[in-house]
């Protein structure tokens, strides 16, 4: 059962229990949600409007034309700024130049690819996810789009994808950044343990200096950068008047950028999720966005099947933007952002991928140096939801994940249209976790 189907079932159970009275409530989830939600059917596993075969180049193009959706301009800008490291797929999404990724490539599929002139450039076994990725380069003169089509023709049963690049949920990733300072040894478990897939974290910042953080780079050595540091502070930060959603918690931080123009790749995200699974991290926050991708989708699905809860920002490209991933995968908890009065930000994404809303503006987070910065965007709402979940989920497991989601769902305050809706999802949570900028003397603005 997907996360969205599970949430719908939980909310239906709560509504039925509340309407049935005290006796029935004893066997349902505790409490009510907002103004009382009606029973709702499970959401479908896919996103309405997407082609049945999301991997088909023809299907992708047809779906784009039918829906009038365009690749956000800022993501197209990644290609221009990459100095040749990236190119565009047939839809215009940024991908690592000259790379096609196969998931669990069969011996026969490998033989056919090699016979056709493809070359294996690297291969990785992600044991914790029971998954193998093989990166291939096409023969000279064959475009990347045609290369994917050729592989699918040669091996119809195989899974082939572009190596799409993901960016922080509102703008471009920082290409620079300083090498991340040494972090604490790997946590050994405890309350509030969670993971972060983002840029590197400056563990010397006062907001996170008291947390137990272990970092690892998946695009070169980990490099501290503003985005990852701000998001980490909203998860485990604690210093004076500032506190994150799970103050002083344990954090595994995966830097999938490392200052590389090709950072944020699908293969990097899969490796980071495998690392989280290997270390039994129960809740992982991903404040990054990109297109639907078979590699990331497989990694998300397998991590979820092991009881990991993945929380992701829905993006800040406006209400008419296409569904952005990983938030739109059915196994992910998608989060949108609201301001200090609990109203959704006008730039926030809309759709069935929205599961919860949380503060993402009129709010402070760790900034450069020793100070704090004003933040705005769904990147900063998602870590608050991840923190709430982590305080209720001590270890990976489907039953525990279900209970944690149920408890957070009962905390949601209904907003917008009555019941679950495509703007606020199940409602607004974590308003009490917002630290107003004037409480900590925040300066400047970080928009993601």
Could you explain the architecture of this structure?
With 448 residues, this protein is α/β, with parallel strands linked by helices. It has helices at residues 3-20, 22-25, 57-67, 73-80, 107-115, 144-154, 226-236, 266-278, 294-305, 382-390, 398-411, 437-440; strands at 86-88, 94-103, 119-126, 131-137, 159-164, 167-168, 178-179, 194-198, 212-217, 223-224, 238-239, 242-243, 250-255, 283-286, 288-289, 309-313, 332-338, 356-359, 363-366, 372-376, 445-447. A hairpin with a 5-residue loop joins strand 19 (363-366) and strand 20 (372-376). The model is unreliable at 16-68 (pLDDT under 50).
Give the helices and strands, then pairings.
Blueprint lengths: L2 H18 L1 H4 L31 H11 L5 H8 L5 E3 L5 E10 L3 H9 L3 E8 L4 E7 L6 H11 L4 E6 L2 E2 L9 E2 L14 E5 L13 E6 L5 E2 L1 H11 L1 E2 L2 E2 L6 E6 L10 H13 L4 E4 L1 E2 L4 H12 L3 E5 L18 E7 L17 E4 L3 E4 L5 E5 L5 H9 L7 H14 L25 H4 L4 E3 L1
Parallel strand pairs: 8-13, 8-14, 9-13, 14-16, 16-17, 17-18, 20-21
Antiparallel strand pairs: 1-2, 2-4, 2-5, 3-4, 6-15, 7-10, 11-12, 19-20
Helix pairs in contact: 1-11, 7-10, 8-9, 10-11
């Amino acid at each position: 059962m997907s996360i969205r189907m599970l949430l719908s079932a939980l909310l239906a159970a709560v509504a039925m229990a509340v309407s049935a009275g005290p006796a029935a409530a004893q066997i349902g989830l505790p409490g009510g949600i907002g103004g009382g939600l009606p029973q709702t059917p499970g959401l479908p596993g896919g996103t309405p409007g997407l082609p049945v075969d999301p991997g088909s180049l023809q299907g992708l193009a047809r779906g784009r034309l039918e829906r009038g959706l365009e690749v956000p301009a800022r993501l197209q800008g990644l290609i221009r700024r990459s100095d040749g490291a990236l190119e565009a797929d047939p839809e215009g999404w940024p991908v690592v130049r000259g790379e096609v990724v196969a998931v669990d490539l069969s011996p026969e599929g490998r033989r056919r690819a090699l016979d056709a002139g493809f070359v294996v450039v690297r291969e990785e076994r992600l044991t914790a996810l029971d998954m193998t990725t093989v990166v291939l380069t096409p023969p000279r003169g064959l475009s990347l789009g045609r290369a994917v089509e050729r592989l699918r023709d040669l091996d119809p049963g195989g899974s082939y994808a572009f190596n799409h690049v993901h960016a922080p949920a509102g703008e471009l990733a920082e290409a620079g950044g300083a090498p991340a300072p040494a972090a604490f040894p790997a946590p050994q478990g405890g309350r509030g343990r969670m993971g972060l897939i983002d840029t590197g974290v400056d563990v010397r910042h006062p907001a996170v200096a008291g947390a137990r953080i272990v970092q690892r780079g998946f695009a070169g050595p980990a490099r501290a950068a503003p985005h990852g540091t701000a998001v980490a502070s909203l998860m485990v930060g604690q210093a004076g008047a500032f506190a994150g959603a799970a103050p002083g918690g344990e954090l595994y931080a995966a830097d999938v950028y490392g200052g590389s123009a090709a950072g944020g790749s699908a293969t990097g995200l899969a490796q980071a999720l495998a690392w989280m699974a290997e270390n039994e991290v129960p809740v992982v926050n991903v404040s990054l966005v990109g297109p639907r991708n078979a590699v990331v989708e497989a990694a998300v699905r397998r991590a979820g099947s092991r009881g990991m809860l993945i929380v992701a920002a829905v993006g800040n490209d406006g209400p008419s933007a296409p569904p952005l991933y990983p938030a739109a995968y059915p196994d992910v908890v998608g989060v949108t952002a609201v301001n200090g009065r609990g109203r959704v930000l006008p730039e926030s994404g809309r759709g069935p991928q929205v599961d919860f809303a949380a503060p993402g503006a009129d709010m402070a987070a760790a900034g450069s140096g020793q100070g704090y910065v004003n933040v705005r965007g769904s990147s900063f709402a998602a870590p608050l939801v991840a923190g709430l979940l982590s305080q209720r989920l001590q270890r990976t497991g489907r039953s525990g994940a279900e209970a944690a989601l149920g408890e957070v769902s009962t905390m949601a305050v209904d907003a917008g249209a009555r019941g679950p809706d495509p703007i606020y999802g199940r409602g607004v949570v974590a308003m009490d976790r917002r630290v107003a900028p004037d409480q900590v003397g925040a300066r400047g603005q970080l928009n993601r």
